[in-house]
């Protein structure tokens, strides 16, 4: 213990020296996104006080409105709302390899929320991952991305949060095993996985590219789901946005690789997917991505959605080993229903289960109903979930269903976890991938049981 204490003291001295020796630890606070109106009221000896007050009110309203938009871009409500009747009151459980973390209350309640936080406290949390009491925050809160958000935008978010209803609610305490419940250990995690500093636009790139980079790398924190993690659960920078698995769901490769990623998608495909959750012939959002669309990306304006696409398609493509794009598999079945007529079924049969549970919406041919209309029952042919090399997402959709409400459609697929056994889910999944998707993607009963047990 004495040796450990001595090593830690030396390390602390090193950190102090490093901080003092760094002449500019934070790049310039520049914003590539056009700022909302009003930095503040005009000050001048001749300005009438009434006019200045009106300008101040307009500035405050503009800042709050911008903050609401930015909070949507950052999807703050998803992680900080366990109960939709108590928005931003926290309590969402996040399962990690080290235990369960519960998200905090960020309403302006003075006792259980952030009502007593100063702007400096809020900036420090967003930019440095340090709480009001000086404690290190766990990176389930994506401060490694939020550190890139400009000070002006962070304060706009704070201004908006100050206007939401204060809710007196204390979320459960974290359930982390020793030694991961010792927050000071985050010093070492940050050393290897966190670079503090604001986003700086690249003058060699267009304003649209910089806008997309600012969103993807910062507020939208796309890497948190789409980038694989290292042994410390930090992000593998060498495999940025190449896909990762969280809570049983696989977040697909969104680099511009034409086979494994979104290289074959048009700008319109991506914009439609982010704004509605559906890109016919490509993909339909389910699981955590459906929630992202519902709570966040559908509210982004067209300029920001286009910018995200411009930036993503400019990145280095990362191959995932697939030989055929996920959305290029499948053809309609011809005679499965006919063959079932009068047939004696023994045991668990995927075709029979599909016709009984799925065909009424997706059609027995797998072609769906409604084509590309909002709220259509999607085709299982040319579908990224059915055509994936891993059938886990397909099984998760069967188990948990789909709920996605956007401005143009209310999409609902019922969950079958309470109605189908693990071997039945495995049989349907394997039938769907064999008939309509990637026939190499199968799933076992044990794998379904493991997915069923994943905390959502």
Automatic annotation (TrEMBL):
Localized where?
A: Cell membrane
User: Transmembrane region positions?
Assistant: none
Q: According to the record, how does the cofactor bind?
A: Binds 3 heme c groups covalently per subunit.
Source species, please? Answer: Trinickia terrae
| UniProt binding sites for heme c 2 | 222, 225-226
UniProtKB keywords: Cell membrane, Electron transport, Heme, Iron, Membrane, Metal-binding, Repeat, Signal, Transport
Cited PROSITE patterns: CYTC (PS51007)
What is the official name of this protein in its record? C-type cytochrome
GO MF terms held by the record: electron transfer activity; heme binding; iron ion binding; oxidoreductase activity, acting on CH-OH group of donors
Is the DNA damage keyword given for this protein? no
